[in-house]
Amino acid sequence: MGGVVTDRTIETISWEEVRALIAARVPQGVIERLSPVPAAELRHLRGPLRKLRSELGRELSSGDMGRYGAAYDQLAALQFAGVFAAATPAEALEWLTARRLLDLTWPRPGGGSTNPDHHALLRALLGPHRDAAFHRELAVRLAEWLPARGDGARWLIAHGLAVWSGAELPTTDGYVIGWVREGGMMRHHHREIGEWFAAEGLRGPVPHHGTLRSWLRVQPRLAEFVRRLFEVPDVGSEFADPHAARSGPDNEWPKVLTALAGEGLLDRAELIDLCLGRLLRGDRPGNLRGFLQLYAELAPDAEEVLARARDHVRLAADGAPTAAKTAQAALRAVDTRLPAELFAELTAAVLARPEKALATAQLGWAGAALRRDPAQADRLLPAVAVAFAHPAPTVQERALGLTARHLPHTAAAAAEAVRAAASALSPALQADAHRLLAIPTPSGEWQEPPQVEASPTGSAAMPAAPAGPVDLAERLGALLADRVPDPGEFEVVLAALVAEHRRDASALRTALAPLTARRGEGPASFWEARSLGGALGCLLDALTGRPQESDRHAAELLDWPAHLRTPAVIPVLRIHEAAGRVAAAPVPLLLATPTAGDGTIDPAVLTERLAAHRASGARPWPMDLAQALLRVPPHALPGLRAAAAGLGCDLPPDTAPPAPRRFHTQTPDLPERVGGYGWAPPVLPRIAPLVDTPVSASGGITGLLHTLPDPTEIDRFTGTPSLSAADLAQLPWLAPWHPETIAAHGLPRAVRQADTASHHENNPLLPRLAEAPGEFGPVSHLLLAYGLTAARAENRTAALDALLAAAARGRLRPEALGAWLAALWCLSVAKPNRVLPVLADAARSGAGRTVWAVLAALITDLAADPGRRGLADVLVLAAECAAAEGIRTTLPALDALVVPAVPAIPSIPSIPRRVRTEAARLAGILTR
Predict the structure, then answer these.
(1) What is the 3-state secondary structure (H, E, C) of 494-534?
(2) Is residue 313 within 8 Å of residue 349, measured between CB atoms?
(3) Within its chain, how far is the Cα of 577 from the centroid?
(4) pLDDT tens-place string over residues 4-33
């Protein structure tokens, strides 16, 4: 970049010349021309360069890919010109860190692009006309700018400037994380910045470091930086790098820090304290893993643990599960030397946590301590009784047995505390608690809890209509910005747009002008227009006199191949219909706007709307009419179809949407159907409704609703087409009286979201479907079963809401839901650790009898395979529900689960001991 100074390099450089170099796109041309010139002689370029950056930014935001590409290709050359012309460190920082200029690719002279050379940017800043003070200030400013997550390119420049100028940089989060990553690169024969200076002939040679350990040994501020490692986010993830171990222990951060402490370069006691402090503050699991590895490498001995015993107790009580387990194990190693008071505190704290493994280990430890010294019972048993409120019934049962064994050796006050705590035990254990702990039984006969009859719940009201054009424009803007628009708000806004355009098109156009100004020029592309927001943009264009191609977009959507069409596009098609007809074939109002918050239309209101069309001489829009007829009760359809026929319009087919009764089960041993690429994809076990023969006469939006997904096409269940959360939110309102059809269309997404490997965003379908008035059948119950075993907790919560709503409305058939759960359980689709906590929450929410009925059906179907994972936990939850609800009945399936153990006979499945125990407990509760 230096070169011989010629007359051309010292002459004034015109803006036109620099602009041409930038337009040429290749940064090297700017570097060669400007690098010999002092920044002071380029001051006349600073204003035009900033203006050009703004102009290119506008081009990048134009939405036109051609303009975007032409602007983007000039940014790298522009950045170099700005860096060369910068008069102060603040100006240089601006050119290095502007959002549009981060991580640019470099265009090649002959076309294409390559990765940026950040060393070239550093070299541009090291020109001889800039002094050390400039470099030091810029290095400090850049270190302070670095984001906490790190920025490798800007870190390199800041570090290089610091090494060059001798600046002492602040230990900001961004600089420290970059320092950690730099150390991790040593195992890759990484060339440090000092080596680069030497290779460029800028400085003398420096030693090469081939390992992290050798590099850390020579760091001048090692202790200072190591302290910051325990404060900066995401350092633990760098510590836990799984690839570092392949390069040996001298390249693993935990092992190297421990080794340096052994060499005396770091303070071992301080490292242990810092590590414990970091674990106590908590973090995401991936980040804590690195600090747990460091703790394991440090391996504090007994004296070091005892000196920090209270910190370990706090970590066992409040730390992340893995950190708590580590603290518990460290304290267990100094068992007999731990003060009794501290051990009781530890026991109560750990048993108050929800983790079953931690509680089981602590109860075992407490049992051993009591056997060794029964005198500890007064202090320890009240702590053990904390486990009576543990969410795991097996932990409760074990704690009950432990307290019962040692209660006779306990003082009266401690014994009363234990008995008082027993009220928190599961209802299934209450009888055992009364017997084992000698708790007096309340006088009086057992009273069964009153049964709450299901009562229909009124549907929510629709949102209020907009109060004039200005309010309408604001609500349309909010709708366009909403990632998952509310179906009621969508319907109200759509109806208001059509009505306001008929009432006063000029006032509406004025109110919509700000929204119109945000849209790009030219009609929307098909890929934009197929979304709800894109279609509303087309309607906005139609309402304001701008060009739009909604008729073409609608035709293309309806012309998609059958396996790509879904009813999720019906709202989009209705918007395009409005955009294409609002001016050419105006109507007094839309027919399909719901009158209730469940998506239904009052037949009397629809009759009035049809009369308004007749009075105005307007013919209903086909899709608007078809959608309206799908929203009225089936018994009102004949009269409404006759009224619509009197308007001279074409009616949609008079066929009810399908409600499947047959199902396809894709078992793990059944190969998937060979696809178009000639190979069979991996098997996705699932259950889905079989496709009936499509109605030949159906077309338009009716055809979209009638064409159900083919259960043998795996692409429909792995994302082709993929229904977004916005699509799923609208789906129940398309045919609120036909939830079976809607459930069949929503099932592929639910299947995908129950698959651990491919769960995605939240699914709003189930709660909205539960609000619909139609009858729940087998497909709806199958969809609910999938929702209960969704991989995301948010989707399981949504399924819980749907279950409670359907039960409250008397639309849930628990035995059907239990049967579907059993079928999914046998396919290993339904996971016990997902389903059972949701059902337990439902029982605690007042649906105990409903949950019992679900579990009874589930137990009945699973009893044939008693060794199946999770059956014991099902029996435990069923016992809790039966005891809490006072259920007295018989469950024949239990008879086969409580038989005594017999020698293995091939024809008789072996019954795990815990299954037999829990089945006997449940049978006792049911016949008590």
Answers:
(1) HHHHHHHHHHHHHHHHHHHHHHHHHCCCCCCCHHHHCCHHH
(2) yes
(3) 35
(4) 344 444 458 999 999 999 999 999 999 999
Distance from chain centroid for Cα 228: 31
In angstroms, the CA 466 to CA 473 distance is: 9
Kindly report the number of other CB atoms within 10 A of residue 179's CB atom. 22
Which residues are 688's β-sheet partners? 664
Tokens linked to 850: 């409903």
pLDDT in tens, 420-471: 999 999 998 998 899 999 887 655 444 444 444 444 455 678 999 999 999 9
Check if the beta carbon of residue 835 is closer than 8 Å to that of residue 673. no
Q: Write out the two tokens for 900.
A: 């005594």
Q: Among 232, 247, 105, 116, which residue's Cα sits nearest to residue 179? A: 232
- The model's pLDDT over 86-112, given as tens digits with 9 standing for 90+, comes to 999 999 999 999 999 988 899 988 888
Q: List Cβ neighbours of 501 (8 Å cut-off, separation of 6 or more).
A: 508, 543, 582, 583, 586
* The two structure tokens encoding residue 671: 């190969």
CA distance 630 to 138: 67
Task: Kindly state the tokens that stand for 864.
Answer: 């044939």
Dihedral over alpha carbons 601, 606, 612, 617 (to 10 degrees): 110
> Which stretches within 707-764 are classed as H helix?
715-718, 725-730, 739-754
**Which amino acid type is present at position 447?**
Q
Please report the sign of the dihedral spanned by the C-alpha atoms of residue 554, residue 557, residue 562, residue 563: negative
Residue 720 tokens, joined: 């082709």
pTM as predicted = 0.74
Question: Which amino acid appears at position 581 of this protein?
Answer: R
* Block residue for tokens 């380029």: 42
CA distance 328 to 347: 10
CA angle 221, 223, 227 (to 5 degrees): 115
Dihedral of alpha carbons 588, 481, 805, 825, sign: positive
Look up residue 881 and give its two tokens: 């529900």
Nearest to 682, CA basis, from 717, 709, 710: 717
CB neighbourhood size of 628 (10 A): 24
Nearby residues of 881 by Cβ (< 8 Å), 6 or more positions away = 843, 848, 849, 851, 852, 855, 887
Distance of CA 215 to the CA centre of its chain: 39
Token pair of 628 as six digits = 């309206």
φ, ψ of residue 135 to 5 degrees: the values are -65, -40
Counting residues of the chain whose pLDDT is more than 70, the rounded percentage is 92
How far apart are alpha carbons 671 and 156 in whole angstroms?
Answer: 53
First-to-last alpha carbon distance for the chain, in angstroms, is 93
Q: CA-based Rg of the chain, rounded to a whole angstrom?
A: 36
Residue type, 678: G
Structure tokens at 723: 């229904």
Are 632 and 640 a contacting pair, CB within 8 Å? yes
pLDDT of residue 187: 87
Q: Do 878 and 837 meet the contact criterion of CB atoms below 8 Å apart?
A: no
E strand or H helix at 686: strand 686-689
Residues with Cβ within 8 Å of 34's Cβ and at least 6 positions away in sequence, in order, are 13, 18, 42, 80, 81, 84, 85
CB 423 within 8 A of CB 779: no
DSSP 845: I
Pull the structure tokens for residue 685.
Answer: 């076990």
CB 164 within 8 A of CB 123: no
Main-chain phi, psi angles of 445, to 5 degrees = -80, 160
> What pLDDT score was predicted for residue 208?
92
Of 652, 510, 501, 645, whose CA–CA distance to 586 is shortest? 501
pLDDT band at 63 (very low <50, low <70, confident <90, very high): low
Q: How far is residue 555's CA from residue 576's CA, in Å, rounded to a whole number?
A: 10
Taking the C-alpha atoms of residue 610 and residue 355, their distance in angstroms, rounded to an integer, is 62
